[in-house]
Amino acid sequence: MNAFRDYTRRYFGATRSATYGVLAGLPLFLLYETFVILVNEGRTEHIRVGADVWIKNVMATIGQPGLLGTVIFLSAIGVYVAIRERRQQIPLRASWFGLLVVESLFYAVVLALVVSTVVGAVFGMDQGGAPPGRITLLVLSIGAGLYEELVFRVALVGGLFLVLRRFVNGSRKAYITAALVGAFVFSLVHYMGPYGDPFLLSSFTFRFLFGLALNGIFLVRGFGVAAWTHALYDVMVVAQMSSS
């Protein structure tokens, strides 16, 4: 029992680190960027995740356009993480990356059951709209797991927490406030801009609760688990749509 407890403690401690977050996000990045090129071949208007476009636009303003800018951006994050955690001697185990994906799948299933059930019970309707092609949706699902977690969880929620803890008494209050504000913004941006969805209270509530759950996962378990949970949840939704 003590050996198992020690193993789980080391697993949860290591996989919560930014090191595992960066390495766990790498397969999502490679899959998304590879398949998005294939999906967009021959298209006049390219399809990408909104958060991905935001990052590329920011990098373009400093002279690093497109995929090159994203690679530089993510490489800078990797270097920062390596410098920040260089003295912690975080063990890297292939089996722990596998467990991280399995853990994320468990959270994705729980979110699918709990959040959808709550919103369905309150509003008596689903939250989806008319989807694009299945392959396109699968590609966007992977990209959402990576890029939306970078923007909304790491930058927004993580940044809010760092700021709020300087002004709010107690880390718990800062965590809760950052999670609530982050979930509200995460849901709201889906209705903004020319490609935003028509506003529905049911879909807004669903996205708010989903974002709130992902915020909790990010704050407790780190970026890697949050990104894989988001991606796997979206893939499950696409698979369910395809079978119906």
Task: Tell me what you see in this structure.
By secondary structure, the chain is mainly α. The protein has one domain (18-87, 94-243). It contains nine helices and no strands. The chain has helices spanning 2-15, 18-39, 50-61, 66-84, 94-123, 134-164, 171-188, 201-221, 223-243. The protein is globular, with a radius of gyration of 18 Å. The chain starts with a helix and ends with a helix.
**What share of the residues lie within helices?**
over 70%
| Count of individual helical segments | 9
Percent strand equals under 5%
Number of beta strands: 0
Shape: globular
Radius of gyration: 18 Å
Number of domains: 1
Summarize the main sheet: none
Q: Report the uncertain regions.
A: 125-130
Order of helices and strands: HHHHHHHHH
Helix/strand class: mainly alpha
Distance between the first and last residues' Cα: 44 Å
List the helices and strands and how they pair.
Blueprint (H helix, E strand, L loop, with lengths): L1 H14 L2 H22 L10 H12 L4 H19 L9 H30 L10 H31 L6 H18 L12 H21 L1 H21 L1
Helix pairs in contact: 2-4, 2-6, 2-9, 3-4, 3-6, 5-8, 5-9, 6-7, 6-8, 6-9, 7-8, 8-9
Descriptive labels:
single chain
In short:
The protein is mainly α. It has helices spanning 2-15, 18-39, 50-61, 66-84, 94-123, 134-164, 171-188, 201-221, 223-243.
